[in-house]
């Protein structure tokens, strides 16, 4: 069903238009050209014959219309992905208008990039959407990218003209009944099963050994599929993914086994709707009465889990050093409206958790708060597009005890300049996944990154060799 909806939204076949015929029978005599004088003499019989003839012709044209329309519908590819799962899709008129405006730009910028989205059984993706959190939590980029690709100009319904093949498997929506966090212990088996399905149903995986296939792994340590780094490293990336392209939130500048795959570092998911709602109440140029802000998990006494300390003790040090410091607004408990606190803050602390990255990176930038990144060696999303050095402050993990002095220095020197850079809507929009691809947004940057990898396209390499 995916291709059916895609073609309905992207390549609408013009439908035959209904019409009616208005007729008037003229009865004539030989003198005046009348051919049926008897009908005039018998008015009732004449009207009856005219009515029967009119009805017969109307039925004929109506049945022709139905047959024509039915044939058009039969010729359309079918898809299994119901629009009820993706209620945020814009109306057809809005989409077609946007497509017209973006077609030329995308075609030029993305070198004619074409992506085929596999139509997998719903157990791999849309069945998980029964839980509303699946499309809104921090790992939901796997849903957002699937959603926007289905309405992108880069989409093709002909797999033989595709440069890349997107495999839509949602592995982050299996929420633990104990703590509510995503449990990804099933990820390897679910993705392996999806690949087996693709290999049986389509010929494209085996011809390139998966090199032109794209997956999303928006988890702590990406396609190593584990929260604890040492276990993730020990397990490594499963062999069936090592030859493919992975869109992942994890990235570091040094060698790491969990990024030993062709990859693109993408931002974690933050709802653009929530950001808009927050900015409506607290404009980005509004008053910022909080100097430094953090809300999240901070262990007073860090838990030693088999030798592993959460956040490498950075968050514990933050709490011990600055709890009670009037310049710092630190909170350890969850609050649904915490984005309003970000919108009131000058600096937003973004320390590592189990992994280096954090959704606070995106929320801070989107809401105009200077992100203070405390995660050594982190690779930031879309670093070839987003001017991270001009919109953020980096603090080494070992220097967290000097954080107050560092931020005071920034506030006294170039805070105004950094805030001005953050107000650029292009910077803020680059990290958000829109409902539809918009120029410069997160999915746009994913497409741009894939364009740079077109050498992996089996179709392109075959054409160039001819």
From TrEMBL:
The places in or outside the cell where this protein is found are: Golgi apparatus membrane
Per UniProt, the keywords (alphabetical) are: Glycosyltransferase, Golgi apparatus, Membrane, Signal-anchor, Transferase, Transmembrane, Transmembrane helix
Q: Which GO terms describe its molecular function?
A: glycosyltransferase activity
Task: Specify the Exostosin GT47 domain's residue ranges.
Answer: 112-409
Chain segments annotated as transmembrane: 51-68
The membrane topology term of the UniProt record is:
Single-pass type II membrane protein
Q: Name one GO cellular component term.
A: Golgi membrane
Q: Give the record's GO biological process terms.
A: glucuronoxylan biosynthetic process
Family according to the record: Belongs to the glycosyltransferase 47 family.
Question: What is the name attached to this protein's record?
Answer: Exostosin GT47 domain-containing protein
Q: Which organism is it from?
A: Malus domestica (Apple)
Taxonomic lineage of the native organism = Eukaryota, Viridiplantae, Streptophyta, Embryophyta, Tracheophyta
């Amino acid at each position: 069903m995916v291709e059916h909806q895609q073609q309905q939204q992207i390549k609408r076949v013009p439908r035959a238009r209904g019409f009616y015929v208005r007729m008037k029978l003229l009865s004539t005599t030989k003198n005046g050209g009348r051919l049926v004088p008897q009908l005039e003499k018998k008015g009732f019989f004449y009207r009856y014959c005219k009515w029967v003839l009119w009805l017969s012709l109307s039925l004929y044209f109506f049945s022709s219309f139905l047959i024509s329309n039915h044939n058009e519908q039969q010729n359309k590819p079918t898809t299994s992905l119901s629009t009820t799962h993706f209620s945020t899709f814009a109306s057809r008129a809005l989409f077609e208008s946007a497509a017209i405006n973006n077609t030329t730009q995308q075609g030029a910028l993305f070198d004619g990039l074409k992506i085929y989205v596999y139509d997998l059984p719903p157990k791999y993706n849309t069945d998980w959407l029964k839980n509303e959190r699946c499309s809104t939590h921090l790992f939901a980029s796997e849903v957002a990218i699937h959603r926007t690709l289905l309405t992108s100009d880069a989409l093709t319904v002909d797999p033989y003209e595709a440069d890349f093949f997107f495999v839509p498997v949602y592995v982050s929506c299996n929420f633990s009944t104990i703590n509510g966090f995503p449990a990804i212990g099933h990820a390897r088996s679910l993705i392996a099963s999806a690949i087996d399905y693709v290999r049986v149903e389509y010929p494209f995986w085996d011809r390139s050994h998966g090199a032109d296939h794209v997956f999303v792994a928006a988890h702590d340590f990406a396609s190593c599929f584990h929260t604890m780094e040492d276990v993730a490293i020990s397990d490594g990336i499963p062999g069936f993914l090592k030859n493919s392209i992975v869109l992942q939130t994890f990235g570091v500048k040094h060698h790491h086994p969990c990024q030993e795959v062709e990859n693109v570092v993408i931002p974690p998911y933050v709802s653009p709707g929530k950001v808009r709602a927050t900015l409506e109440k607290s404009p980005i140029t509004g008053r910022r009465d909080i100097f430094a802000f953090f809300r999240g998990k901070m262990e007073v006494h860090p838990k030693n889990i088999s030798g592993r300390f959460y956040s490498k003790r950075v968050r514990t040090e933050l709490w011990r050093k600055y709890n009670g410091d009037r310049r710092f607004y630190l909170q350890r408990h969850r609050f649904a409206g915490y984005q309003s606190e970000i919108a009131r803050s000058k600096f937003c602390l973004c320390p590592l958790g189990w992994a280096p990255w954090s959704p606070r990176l995106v929320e801070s930038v989107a809401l105009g708060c200077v992100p203070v990144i405390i995660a050594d060696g982190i690779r930031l999303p879309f670093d070839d597009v987003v001017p991270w050095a001009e919109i953020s402050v980096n603090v080494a993990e070992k220097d967290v005890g000097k954080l107050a002095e560092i931020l005071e220095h920034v506030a006294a020197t170039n805070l105004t300049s950094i805030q001005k850079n953050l107000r650029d809507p292009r910077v803020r929009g680059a990290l958000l996944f829109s409902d539809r691809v918009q120029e410069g947004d997160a999915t746009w940057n994913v497409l741009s990154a894939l364009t740079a990898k077109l050498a992996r396209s089996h179709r392109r390499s075959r054409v160039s060799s001819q």
